[in-house]
Known about the structure:
This protein is α/β, with parallel strands linked by helices and about 600 residues long.
Amino acid sequence: xxxxxxxxxxxxxxxxxxxxxxxxxxxxxxxxxxxxxxxxxxxxxxxxxxxxxxxxxxxxxxxxxxxxxxxxxxxxxxxxxxxxxxxxxxxxxxxxxxxxxxxxxxxxxxxxxxxxxxxxxxxxxxxxxxxxxxxxxxxxxxxxxxxxxxxxxxxxxxxxxxxxxxxxxxxxxxxxxxxxxxxxxxxxxxxxxxxxxxxxxxxxxxxxxxxxxxxxxxxxxxxxxxxxxxxxxxxxxxxxxxxxxxxxxxxxxxxxxxxxxxxxxxxxxxxxxxxxxxxxxxxxxxxxxxxxxxxxxxxxxxxxxxxxxxxxxxxxxxxxxxxxxxxxxxxxxxxxxxxxxxxxxxxxxxxxxxxxxxxxxxxxxxxxxxxxxxxxxxxxxxxxxxxxxxxxxxxxxxxxxxxxxxxxxxxxxxxxxxxxxxxxxxxxxxxxxxxxxxxxxxxxxxxxxxxxxxxxxxxxxxxxxxxxxxxxxxxxxxxxxxxxxxxxxxxxxxxxxxxxxxxxxxxxxxxxxxxxxxxxxxxxxxxxxxxxxxxxxxxxxxxxxxxxxxxxxxxxxxxxxxxxxxxxxxxxxxxxxxxxxxxxxxxxxxxxxxxxxxx
Length: 599
């Protein structure tokens, strides 16, 4: 049996293209301040064939129908590109074979219940539509139609789709800008990180076509912030999440270098630092965190950095090359910067108050293994001490003095000692802020003020995985999902957040992947070899696995994430013995037990 794959428009997307009798897109209605306002998606010409250029189409036989069992995936080559062929519940599906985020091979990911999860960073895609369902990343997969003729499977696909391996969802445009003056918008988004951008894109994807304004203190359009510490010499245009043309095409306005100083929730007005005021109907606060600074003498001198922008990262790399670098704080940022500079700097010293890096997050044993890897790469640790003074010579940093009495030579100092929520401007707003400065939201990312939503690093939200305990998860993937949930609920969808936290860190060409929420773990079950840096660590609380981390053990973290996402409980006993069925399923990829009942 041969299987044919043909690029088709997913049902959800097709429904958006259905035409009304007059040949135009059927209008939808959205109420703005009580007034009905019509909007529609971009108009598209009626086409009987989704392939506008027949020369752009390729068709190939890829296998016999019996070559794949249910639950199996296979990369298939169509001559000018590859597709991912999937068989589930007796049906074949075909989508792009690479994750649009960083290009991970999805054939090595996890297939479960109609979606495939990326093995590297946990993004999830619907196998029927190709739509992205969990993050990180912004684009979906191209979807190809599979046809079976004479027991053979054929794929018919657009060459362009095979080459790009990504699909941007159809979006609306703003059709009512003339109804607004410069100081009025329907949706105002404060912050232009992942949460803010995904919120804006989701609104457009759902057909919203009123005005959207994003504002940011940054000078750049939204960019891939995790790369500031992982790939420090990247220029802004290299790490931009979307090109400038994208924002113009879909009428998403971005006000750069604009800081909001206060919000009047009664009048629905945001007041900017320069005195400018903007009226809004719906508000998303996604301001993220502000890095903590040192409190010692000399903290303001030249060559002392908090890495917050591409310019900061670029400047550090330039100054650190063949020089002495001191990094304060064995945080994710501090450790990633140390790893990046180790081969470039003359020396890298890392100062940390704890006795092991990452102890609270990964546990002592994993922390020691990571520390050893750094020491083998010429990074020198000064643990259980703090900085007491920064000394200068001719106005520039020269030495870092530790409370232990040790004096370190330093031409550059990078501070990575944590961050605080950037919510100070909300103190008099009436928006519920907790004692640490985090914005408190419900499962729909709503604050206590109607029409005001919050997302990203600055929020406390109910985590379904931990019985709806209010938590702060300051990670890239979670910010994406927050933004999407906020947008859907601005449109009154009533969607609740239920995603499993997923993060990663990269150091010396190796990655640690992590899923779940391990805060308060009381034990760590480790399988594999820590010395060889090939291991999986299960974090348990009482008898339950609450999180997992791994290095060189893909795709086990994505498998555990999928189990947790299904609402299943993994018991400590299931992972203590490598011969247990549950642990074996993580190793073999057999996820069929997920369809059973109970834990």
